[in-house]
UniProtKB/TrEMBL annotation:
Its cofactor is Mg(2+). Residues 12-226 form the HpcH/HpaI aldolase/citrate lyase domain. This is Citrate lyase subunit beta/citryl-CoA lyase. It comes from Nocardioides aurantiacus. It comes from the Bacteria. GO terms for biological process: oxaloacetate metabolic process. Keywords: Lyase, Magnesium, Metal-binding. Mg(2+) binds at residues 131, 158. GO terms for molecular function: lyase activity; magnesium ion binding. Substrate binds at residues 73, 131.
Length: 292
């Protein structure tokens, strides 16, 4: 795996909001989340699709969301709204266009062609939602299909539905799918975001799921409520101890220059641990720069 600069962009907390909800669109301007997904899909009722599309395009073109990475989630390719959504999103030029239920490399190629045909600016990348069993089994070909695809987004609600599974603490029914998507993202140098936690009042359950996602290797979590932002920001940032440890590892390596292996606080340090420590510090600095 190579760490492209793209992978050091903090995406700890990426908040969905219905583009039909004016209060949410307004509130998002003051929330400390790393990214926003202005939704046109599941959170928007059919009779509100057209006005939500207009609101999302206006918001994305407004320049009023500061440092937050701003994206629009269009309706799926098999819906009557997809083409109009894609055209409007391309014209608005957000940081990324999020497409639900992407399941093959061919689908990615079709989307990238459409982005070009509709004149999306070069800065607008494609985020693919992987949320079906078929997508899990083809995650690597999806992730590798185009340079323009920069992020995989887990759709865990749809995945639970399609698997006939259940939402349970620890997410045992989803672990194979989550791991396949993670392997695909890391093997192809893409970022990957964990799915949402539906119970907005269950803080303990949410924080446990953040910890699990972080430990598995996700870059951040998609969210549905402002109350989830702070927990995700903390969980997906290197902790103070991790930063101190990373500095210590680099210092121990420096002190033992020329030796292929040293120890730090009793633990073996080799070249690969030094790379991990450097990654931790780079991410820490990127977060500080973002928040500063
Ligand atoms: C889940 C909600 C419907 C809860 O809404 P509500 O009861 O109104 O929440 P609160 O009263 O606690 O809200 C307090 C204030 O915060 C604002 N708010 C709420 N949610 C958001 C948000 N997502 N972004 C921005 N601001 C938000 C309220 O407007 C209140 O503001 P104020 O009155 O000014 O204080 C609601 O949170 C919600 O709609 N969430 C997003 C739902 C969504 O987008 N769903 C689609 C994505 S999830 C998905 O589909 C994943 C995937 O596809 C899969 O398969 O898993
Ligand atoms: Mg979904």
């Amino acid at each position: 795996m190579t760490d492209a600069p793209e992978q050091f962009r903090p995406r700890r907390s990426v908040l969905y909001m219905p583009s039909s909800n004016k209060r949410a669109l307004e509130k998002a301007k003051s929330l400390p989340c790393d990214g926003l997904i202005l939704d046109l899909e599941d959170a928007v009722a059919p009779d509100a699709k057209a006005s939500a599309r207009e609101a999302a395009a206006t918001a994305a073109a407004s320049g009023e969301y500061g440092r937050r990475e701003l994206t629009i989630r269009v309706n799926g390719a098999d819906t009557e709204w997809h083409d109009d959504d894609l055209r409007a999103a391309c014209e608005a030029g957000p940081d990324a266009i999020v497409v639900p239920k992407v399941a093959s490399a061919e689908a990615v190629h079709t989307l990238v062609d459409a982005l070009e045909r509709h004149g999306a600016p070069d800065r607008t990348s494609l985020w693919a939602m992987v949320e079906t069993p078929y997508a899990m089994l083809h995650a690597e070909e999806i992730a590798a299909a185009s340079e323009r695809l920069t992020v995989l987004v887990m759709g865990t609600n749809d995945l639970v539905k399609e698997l006939y599974a259940e939402h349970v603490p620890g997410r045992a029914p989803l672990l194979t799918g989550l791991s396949l998507a993670l392997l695909a993202a890391r093997a192809t140098g893409k970022a990957i975001l964990d799915g949402v936690y539906n119970d907005v009042k269950d803080t303990d359950g949410f924080l446990a799921e953040c910890r699990q996602g972080r430990e598995m290797g996700f870059d951040g979590k998609t969210l549905i409520h402002p109350g989830q932002v702070e927990g995700a920001n903390t969980a997906f940032a290197p902790s103070a101890e991790a930063v101190e440890d990373a500095r210590g590892v680099l210092q121990a390596w420096e002190d033992g220059r020329g030796s292929g292996v040293v120890t730090y606080r009793g633990k073996m340090v080799e070249n690969l641990h030094v790379e991990s420590a450097q990654r931790t510090l780079t991410m820490h600095e990127a977060i500080q720069a973002l928040e500063g």
